[in-house]
Amino acid sequence: MRENHTDDALLRFAYGQMIEHFSDKQVREAAAVRVRDFVAARHPVPASQAPAESRQAVADMAETGVHFFEPFLTRQQCIEVLRHISQLPVYDNQSYSGSSRTPLLFEQVRNTVPVASYRVDHILQVPHLLEAALSPAIRDLAAAYLGCMPTMYGCNMYWSFPGHDLVRGVQHFHRDFDDLRFVTLFILLNDVSDAAGSHEFVQGSHRRDINLERFANWHGEHARSGEEAELKQQYRDPRILFAPNPYIDPLIHAIFGDRILRIAGSAGTTFAEDNFGLHRGVPPKGPRLLFWARYGYGPNAYSARVTPERVPASWLRSRIGDDETLRYLTRMLIDWDA
Length: 338
Ligand SMILES: O=C(O)CCC(=O)C(=O)O
Description:
alpha+beta, Jelly Rolls, six-stranded antiparallel β-sheet, Phytanoyl-CoA dioxygenase
């Protein structure tokens, strides 16, 4: 439900502030357990549709922070997405909420901005994307990883274009602090090569123990270069690894170089991540289009900042159906009373 009252908005804001400022992983995990129990006591988790697959997916997420699915979209469906969005306005930021909110044409932005996105309410009306975001496999994974009924609280689709400086927030290694725990579904919507435009994820970096262990081991080893010696001087406290947007790519490469997974593939490539783990988009050599949807405990730090126009359910029912679980899952993006 969209809260219109100041009290609800204030609570959401306060909870969002708390999530964003508790970068300490241990504190986050302890708080996540309480929030999980709160949600689980009110909303039973529906039975998994494919328990064995979901167990594997959760095991991957717990260990590395990433899981690969069979593609949720065919090449033909990706082409239909591209065809549909050619009629839509784009906005000059990686998310509509951070943009100037001036509707622009794709041709106007492709050579002038590094990233451009679409409105969430437009994205939900693009064929195939919402269906993909509601696929049983991601719903199962999100429920099992969160330990309760998930809430799909956000989605995005954006272009990255070549020929610009790295975009802070997405093209440098960073963690996202949307919720105390959350899952992102990513789908590449056009072909992405390994050399350019891949998505990078630091395997294991969503785990506190691995960050601390890697940092300590790295400090214990001899520096391999003058630059690395300087990094060791500069960064003595491992808490830097948990800071929001710290701008520390050289440090990440030094500590986690062998754990950086480059994800590329043909249109339709589908994977999930725990985006508390370090990740970034590599600037592409040609326009690259990415879709994501995110699942968490409910209103959170992300939704305290980003409140998209909800789409009336009457526009979407013929595509996605209507049941209590679906209403709960999508309530922050779809207006089920309209
Ligand atoms: O473009 C990408 O691959 C990175 C996406 C990202 O960092 C994010 O959505 O938080």
